[in-house]
Fold this sequence. Notes:
Chain A has 115 residues and is an all-beta fold. Helix content of chain A is 0%, strand content 54%. Helix content of chain B is 0%, strand content 54%. Chain B has no helices and eleven strands. In chain B, the strands form two sheets. In chain B, strands 2, 4, 5, 9, 10 and 11 form a six-stranded mixed β-sheet that branches. In chain B, strands 1-3-8-7-6 form a five-stranded antiparallel β-sheet, with no helix packed on it.
Amino acid sequence: xxxxxxxxxxxxxxxxxxxxxxxxxxxxxxxxxxxxxxxxxxxxxxxxxxxxxxxxxxxxxxxxxxxxxxxxxxxxxxxxxxxxxxxxxxxxxxxxxxxxxxxxxxxxxxxxxxx
Amino acid sequence: xxxxxxxxxxxxxxxxxxxxxxxxxxxxxxxxxxxxxxxxxxxxxxxxxxxxxxxxxxxxxxxxxxxxxxxxxxxxxxxxxxxxxxxxxxxxxxxxxxxxxxxxxxxxxxx
Lengths: 115, 111
């Protein structure tokens, strides 16, 4: 049963703390996305990797957010320092990125609360 | 800013009726169009994709695409209470594989 795995599922932290979220994409998928979902903004793209190379992080606040893909089985999203406005659900998704397919498979999300 | 617009709803329909969900997009170069369903507290899951003008049917779901009008819709026939969810329209801009999502339409199917 291939699926995208995200950890942690829930995280409560205090303002100023570092938060790291991890994602294991589906084996064989060559595109990985990080999205943030809030009631106000919906799903916002934060970062996009293809074959582990970061291709688009224009939606990510660069001063505090960073995204990496150290190997094909792990993508990370780090927030340092965290702020209350970062409270949201963070989704990782992976896909094949070939031809016209384009469909994404989402992880269950990491719900972040920054106090 | 390339945009994907959806009515936030909620759209309320009785069980057994047809639910019609609509989406417009701003980038004329868009090639691929997707509908995702998201239950409350869950992650989005793909239910339909469409690339060509016209209709595409899959069971109770029909996706309709009109590139000239920059419009894509999802029809759900014989709506069931289990169809109650938020439906997200996603559009791949130009030749990219980066979907831009609308904010979603909340659908409520009442018995």
